[in-house]
Amino acid sequence: MLCCGQLWLINVPPLRVQLTGTLRILADCALARRRLSDSGAIPELCVALERRGSDRDVCFCIVRVLSKLSTYNDFCAALADCSRCYILFLALLNKYQKQQDLVIRIVFILGNLTEKNDQSREQFFQEEESVNTLISLFQTYYELDLNAPTWHHDRKGRNHLKYPSEAEDVLIKLIRVLANLSIHPRVGAALAAAHPVVGLLVTVLEYKSVDACEELVINAATTINNLSYYQVKNSAVQDKKLHIAEMLLKMLMSDNMDAVVEAVRVFGNLSQHHEIRDFIMQKKIYKFMIALLDSKNREVCFPACGVLLNLTVDENKRAFLMEEGGIGKLIDCLQDFGPADWQLSCLICKTLWNYSESMMSAASCFGGDTYTLLELLTALLDEEVELECSLDRDIKDCQRVYWEREFKPVAEKLLDRIQSLHSFS
């Protein structure tokens, strides 16, 4: 009986293809997967792939098997343990760069390998020409996408939008790999300074609309957001920050809420720079951020509040919060989320703290919301009720630590300031 690694010994091409095709079918069966795992199938498949790298059909079938198996954690870990797997995949990507069906599966495997494992991220990044290979693939499929037909005909001759296109699909999975790599601190910092990488991500935002391919645009924005976290010398994200902000403005104007939220997240990081804060005020984006506070959705309110917090760093930008009803909306958010989300509550208190820094009276600062805010802060600082909404013990312990270390100090300072201002009003 032949084992997986002996596939390369078979000199009858159709038989090799049939055998690898059978393995692909077996990969869908739980019992067969267990036996494949017990027999050490992954390293043997890698041997077969390396030995038959010049046989496109066999490579395709083996990659299909590995692609399926890599969706399971134990097989993915076994593949990551194969020291030569990254060299092998990079060689195949370079050899078969325009073979979309093969490329997309290899990139999918790389995405699975780098999704949860920091060691895999670093190991792949350290392989010679790894990032350059991804860049080359990106350029190839970007050019193919520019020239790809947008419409296809069904059997009845009707036109339909093909979504996503084959080229878009490759780009989506390539960006997923870059997003995964960017999570690793050292790798992410290096990618943030890699102008070709950031340039291609920005290109996606330039030429592709959310309506045309939602997943591609959002993934590109997510990766830019990851890279914008790194404050490194010669950061390509910082060099292009104003242009990126222009592209994000287009996303904010879309009807796609997922795209809007992702754009707001990027603005949250970029607004640490005064040029972006000026841009936000000039384009009146701050009004949009304040409006998002009405969403009652934590995933929307949190990044929007992050942008508002950064804006209040500049004293000359603080008045907008009162003018646009932002103070009342922030207090409503604090009331809505309260003990359920100390991280967001802390962010709101920091924003209100910055805002009230130079105010002379509570009335001029918080207007009719002063009493509401006083009562709310007093209630949230009460140790008897501060964790009443958390049922799970582990979550409760984590929440208590955050409440004590993060929320309580800033909330107490804010409460003292309001009481002091209020007593002199």
TrEMBL record:
<feature type="repeat" description="ARM">
    <location>
        <begin position="284"/>
        <end position="326"/>
    </location>
</feature>
<dbReference type="InterPro" id="IPR038905">
    <property type="entry name" value="ARMC2"/>
</dbReference>
<dbReference type="InterPro" id="IPR000225">
    <property type="entry name" value="Armadillo"/>
</dbReference>
<dbReference type="InterPro" id="IPR016024">
    <property type="entry name" value="ARM-type_fold"/>
</dbReference>
<dbReference type="GO" id="GO:0007288">
    <property type="term" value="P:sperm axoneme assembly"/>
</dbReference>
<protein>
    <recommendedName>
        <fullName>Armadillo repeat-containing domain-containing protein</fullName>
    </recommendedName>
</protein>
<dbReference type="InterPro" id="IPR011989">
    <property type="entry name" value="ARM-like"/>
</dbReference>
